[in-house]
Specification:
Layout: H1 10-28, H2 32-42, H3 46-53, H4 62-80, H5 83-86, H6 91-106, H7 110-120, H8 126-143, H9 151-172, H10 180-209, H11 213-221
Helix pairs in contact: 1-2, 1-3, 1-4, 1-7, 2-3, 4-6, 4-8, 6-10, 8-9, 9-10
């Protein structure tokens, strides 16, 4: 567990306590009690911990706690699936490695995850849930080396967010050795993603060579010298 500096910021408190909050949320729910127990375990002032998570808000600010936990998982994921680990892999293999690493980090806290997803599935939290899913997909694509800035930027993340959400449903009830069922499900979905990306690339290449009226008129106006 990370150690807090002598005069920590609220962001630093959240980063250190988020994994512990998740551990206690499996029993206490995503409520202020989970923050209190995490603070006690880490030796952090309870009032400071509650302030960091805004846990005195009505309902305990469950969404804020969940968001902080997911952010800590993202950081751990890229800490384990480093560029050196991903080097030499194709895009689909890099994505698979990152997702599998993330799920392995979540595996020990599946009950906390079930509770978190139940909260995110509430009608008033649907928009926030979509934002968190998008953030995870974006984090994974960036870690995989994606630099797309056009429409592909959005289509890739939307597609991966859907794949990840479906994979999570399998993961939650997967009791197979080494999450074999989840890994197989993910592999099938990512194979479809890989085919889709290759098809888009071929179509883009064809469009690049397609006759263009604008280019033709431009050449008439400005013929090559």
């Amino acid at each position: 567990m990370s150690v807090l500096p002598e005069d920590p910021t609220l962001d630093e408190v959240r980063a250190v306590l988020a994994p512990l909050v998740a551990r206690h949320a499996a029993f206490d729910g995503w409520r202020a009690a989970a923050v209190d127990h995490a603070a006690q375990q880490a030796g952090v002032d309870q009032a400071l911990a509650r302030l960091a998570f805004d846990a005195d808000r009505r309902g305990g600010n469950a969404i804020g706690m969940i968001e902080a936990w997911f952010a800590s998982i993202d950081e751990q994921m890229t800490g384990k699936a480093t560029p050196e680990v991903l080097a030499g892999k194709g895009v689909t293999a890099r994505i698979a490695t990152l997702v599998e690493t993330r799920l392995a980090l979540l595996a020990k806290d599946r009950e906390a995850l079930r509770r978190a997803l139940a909260i995110l599935a509430m009608p008033l939290n649907i928009a926030r849930a979509g934002q968190l899913g998008w953030r995870t997909a974006d984090h994974i694509w960036r870690a995989a080396g994606d630099t797309a800035a056009d429409f592909n930027h959005y289509s890739k993340r939307a597609t991966l967010a859907a794949i990840y959400a479906a994979t999570m449903l399998v993961f939650l009830d997967d009791e197979s050795d080494g999450l074999a069922e989840t890994r197989a499900f993910l592999a099938r979905r990512l194979a479809g993603l890989g085919r889709f990306e290759k098809t888009k690339a071929r179509l883009a290449a064809k469009r690049a060579y397609r006759p263009s009226l604008a280019r033709f008129i431009g050449r008439l106006r400005y013929p090559a010298i």
